[in-house]
Please model this.
Amino acid sequence: MSSTKAIKVLYCCSDSDKDEKLREELEKHLRILKWQGIITTWDKSMIGAGNEWESETYGQLMTADIILPLISSDFVASDENWNVLAKLAMERHKARQACVIPIRLRPVDNYWKVAFPNVTALPRDGRCVTDWKPYDRAFKSIAEDIRKVAEKGTGSEFPIQNSLQQIRAVVIPVARIFWNLTSAFVNMAITIFSSSPGRLRYRKRNRAKFRAILKIIIIVVIASVFIHQLSNLLRSSSPESEPTLNSVQQVTSIGWIKIGLTNNTSRGLIIGSPLLKTSDPQIIDTHLVPAPGHLFTLKGKVDLREKKSPSSRLLGELQPGEKLKILDVKDLVEPSSSSPYMQVWGQVGRCNQACNR
Model:
């Protein structure tokens, strides 16, 4: 495992001391995965002095392979976790850029599942960690399931490595059986057809020829099987069916559209920050500043521009119902503007098979 890319695991935890202590206990149970080089972990306590916690948290969220929302009453009560981080995490999950696994820490109304639809929470038996006695039993179960997910590999290198191992496990034993059976058949055929006294002197020569032909046949058969399996592997591990953080590059840009407005702050544009309601009709299916890779169906007409500016060349008008993918997101603040808002612009491409969720 040391030669592969480690899976990045991100904790989304409330600021509650109770939750933080439980997170630390879970971290201990995942420590062996870190020692083995299977995963790396990140939580808010790792933010360096002087760094902006919002921008660093969003940056870590955008590059995580596995996202662990630690569910509790304090998590649900946090606007930051509930309204921003959870929504952004699920957008990446739906785009198959990350795997979201909620962890039930402490009892809370099951309404939290609304924010995480169609995902499997841990522990699997439906109980919270604090319902287990001792807690270590719950953390052991959680760590085992996270290990399974991590070893399957969210990182782009793991699917190829695992599939090649599966191909070797099938092809090599089959090739050995095929060789043994065919060799036995060839030896029997040579014995039958070379049994007459006039042909005995040709037996060794014929056997050598048959074996040479047999080797060529077996090599061709194995090569055809391997090439077929490898082509299936490359299709299954390509961005069309297994999107990674680089899957955005598979779609060609057609131009820029204005997505909406967000608060104008000294930190600049922050992925996952709220999109503000304006007089313009909403054109995108999220109320947050979307991340590159976000897939959506256009909800209203919008001008397509050559650059991220309303004064740049008009390339056309996009119609409601078009399926698009965001390739890049930029802010735009008009010069000498004192507006408390900034424009959010997205570079988009039309979806094709590479965009399928």
Observations:
- Residues 66 and 149 are 9 Å apart (CA to CA).
- Residues 154-163, 233-249 have pLDDT under 50 and may be disordered.
- The radius of gyration is 29 Å.
